[in-house]
Design brief:
Elements: E1 3-6, H1 16-26, E2 32-33, H2 47-59, E3 66-70, H3 72-82, E4 89-93, H4 99-105, H5 110-115, E5 118-122, E6 127-131, H6 135-138, E7 154-159, H7 167-176, E8 181-185, H8 194-210
Parallel strand pairs: 1-2, 1-3, 3-4, 4-7, 7-8
Antiparallel strand pairs: 5-6
Length: 211
């Protein structure tokens, strides 16, 4: 059974949490995959391209993997599970539920909706890039995530001080999925505090012990 890590928006597979998961897997001789989800590239990003790439990766594996999704990667992982891909466990780190809804209606992205372009600092590239218009017509396809019903085992870690993704989104998901585990941590969106990483490690250990 392999481990897949899905990174967040304007990030890459070699971010801090991706490296942490890779090291955890390597120490246990577990196959590890961290696809670059800037697809087809960041300037032409769509959620659809990310979801389809993860579906293809899972289909190529010999058995259902454990999937860790961070922020937008969490949304992508949940979408893939909702669409029926087989997973042993889905671990979501501050998952970006409501991403499409907030971008289609929120004030922060009003300029993007008007112009179809948005300068964005890309953390993996270490520079400013321009998000192009392709994401805009793709967003309505993914705005109903509050209606998704997942049948795979799900665990969520979310920080109380998260200013990027409202904790209320994860709480609402947990209410819709009574079997899901939600742990609210004393951390921000990054979830890089030692205690948060220890919680992630414990979830990984449980997933590979019981999966």
């Amino acid at each position: 059974m392999d481990l897949i890590y899905l990174h967040g928006f304007a990030s890459g597979p070699q971010g801090a949490k991706g490296r942490h998961c890779q090291a955890w897997a390597a120490a246990r001789n577990i196959g590890f995959h961290a696809p670059d989800l800037n697809l087809p590239d960041f300037e032409h990003l769509t959620v659809t391209a990310q979801v389809e790439a993860v579906e293809a990766l899972i289909a190529s594996l010999g058995e259902p993997p454990v999937v860790v999704g961070s922020s937008m990667g969490g949304l992508v992982g949940a979408a893939v599970a909702h669409r029926g891909a087989a997973m042993a466990r889905l671990i979501l780190l501050a998952p970006a539920f409501g991403f499409a809804r907030r971008r289609l209606a929120g004030r922060r992205w009003a300029g993007y909706r008007k112009r179809g372009l948005m300068p964005t600092f890309h953390h993996a590239e270490g520079k400013w890039l321009t998000l192009g218009p392709e994401l805009l017509p793709d967003l309505p396809l993914w705005q109903d995530d509050d209606q998704w019903r997942l049948t795979v085992p799900v665990a969520i870690l979310h920080g109380r001080q998260d200013e990027a993704v409202p904790l209320a989104e994860s709480e609402a998901f947990a209410r819709r999925h009574p079997d899901a585990l939600l742990r609210v941590l004393d951390d921000d969106h990054a979830l890089l505090a030692p205690a948060s990483l220890a919680e992630l490690d414990a979830l990984l250990a449980e997933a590979f012990r019981t999966g």
